[in-house]
Amino acid sequence: MTALLVALTALISLVGTAATPTYASLSPWRSDAVADLRGAPTADGWSTDLAARLLPLVAPGCAAFHASSAVDHVVLLWATTTGHGCTPATADTVTSTVALFDTATGDVLWTHRLSTDAFRDIGTVAVSSASVVRASRTVLVEASAAGRFRVVSLDLATGSLKGFHDLGTTDQGVQSTVTASFALLGATGATAGTTRWQLVDPARVGRPVWFATLDDTARPLLVGDAVFVALGGRSVRVDGRTGRITTLGQGTVDLQSAVVEGNDLYTTQASDAGDVITAWNGEGRMLWVRSGTGDIVGVTRTCVVTSFVGTATSSCLSRATGHVLWGAGTGTSSVSLGLPGQTSDSVFVVSVAASGRQLLVLDGATGAVEAAASIPVLTFPVLASHSTGYLVRRDAADADESISAFDVRTGRVLWTEGASRGRSVELWGGRLVSVSSAGVARELVDRQPGPLGR
C-alpha cells in the first residue's frame, strides 16, 4: 500500500508539473517592469483626482488626459479639452498644463503651465507629444500655438523651464525621435518635399548639435547618441556628442529601409544575389553581414526576423552573430516583434490568413510555437510582463476600445477590460489605469495570486 501511494504521488506530481506552464525571468525588455495582472482587474490601487490636482479652477469633465511613455515609472501628463463644461477662459489653462506623474504611487510630482513662459502671449497651446529623457534629467515637450511649433525643455526634478527652441511655422506638425540621451526633430522645410532636421541635447534645445534640410526621401535615423543619414549621396554617421561626421561603410549603405533597435542598426542592401542584411552598432561599426534570408520583418530581444515576400516561413538571425538560428511557419502575411516589458526571448507574430488574424508566440531559441490564439481585427499586442501579455483593440478612429490580457505560454485570454461611457482604460508606464470623464484616475490591480509556474 505504501509503495502504491508513493507511485500515485509521483504520478500526480509529474502530471501537475507537465500541466503547469513555466515562465522566463529575464530583465524586462525595452521598458520598466510591466504589471502582471492574471485575474480580472479591480480599482483597488491608487486613486488620484487629476482634474483637481492639475486643473483646480476648471470644471470637472472639461479635460481629457494623455500620458507619455514611461521612464523609471514616471510619465508626463497633458490634457485636451472635451467641450463639456469648458469655457474660452479655461481652455488655455487645460491645454497648456503639463504634469509629471508617478505611476507606481499615483502622485503628481509637479505641474507646469507652458503659457506662462515658453508660449507667453502667443495663443492657445496644444501639446502634441512629450518624452522623459533619463540621461539629461529632462522632460521634452513638443507643442504649438498659433501655428508656431516649439520644443520645450523642463527640469525632470522640479518642472522648471530649462529652455525652448522654435521649430518654425508649419501645418504638418513635428516629427521626432527621442533616445535616452538625444532628440532628433524635424519640421516641414521651406521647399515642398523637404524637412528641416535638428539633433539636440534635450538639456540644451536651443543649440542643435547638427542640422540639415533634407529631401523627404532621406529621413535620418537616431541610433543611441548618433544620427545615421545620407548626405550628398553618401551614407554617414553624425556623432551627437561632437557633431563629427564620418562615412558609414563605404558611403553606399542604403538607409531607406533600415531598422533601428536600441543602439543597433540593421540595413538591407539589394544585390544580384538577393537582399543583403548588415548589422551596425551605434558607433558605426559593422557587426555582421548575412544574405539569402529575405527582408527584415521584425527585431526582438535576440532575433532579427526575416522572410521572403509571399512565403509562409520566417527565419531568426542571431542579433549577436547574424547566424540563422531557426526557421518557422508564420503565414504569408505576418509581422514579428518583441513586446516591451517581456521577460523572455519569445517572438510574437501577428499573422493574417484566410481564416482570420492569429497571434503566435514562438520560442526565441528554437522557433517552436509556444502559444497560438485568434485575435480580432484592429487588435494588436503592445506589452508583456512575466506571465501576461496585453492586447489593445482600437476603433476605426485609432482610439483604444479595450485591453485584453493573455497568458504568454498558452495564448489563453485571461480577461478583457473595455472602455465605457464615462471612462477610458489605458496602460500608463506598464500599469493599467482607468480614467473617468471627471478626471479621476484609478490604478486597476489584480487581487488574485500570481501564476503557479515560474
Question: How would you explain this protein's 3D organization?
Answer:
- With 454 residues, this protein is mainly beta.
- It has a domain at 220-292.
- Helix content is 7%, strand content 48%.
- The protein contains 3 helices and 36 strands.
- The protein has helices at 2-19, 50-54, 88-96, and strands spanning 47-49, 63-67, 74-81, 97-102, 107-113, 125-133, 138-145, 148-155, 161-169, 174-178, 183-188, 194-200, 210-215, 221-223, 226-231, 234-239, 245-247, 259-261, 264-269, 276-281, 286-291, 295-299, 303-307, 313-318, 324-329, 333-337, 347-353, 356-362, 369-375, 379-384, 388-394, 400-407, 413-418, 423-428, 431-436, 440-444.
- The strands form 9 sheets. A 4-stranded antiparallel β-sheet has the order 1-36-35-34. A 4-stranded antiparallel β-sheet has the order 2-3-4-5. Strands 6-7-8-9 form a 4-stranded antiparallel β-sheet.
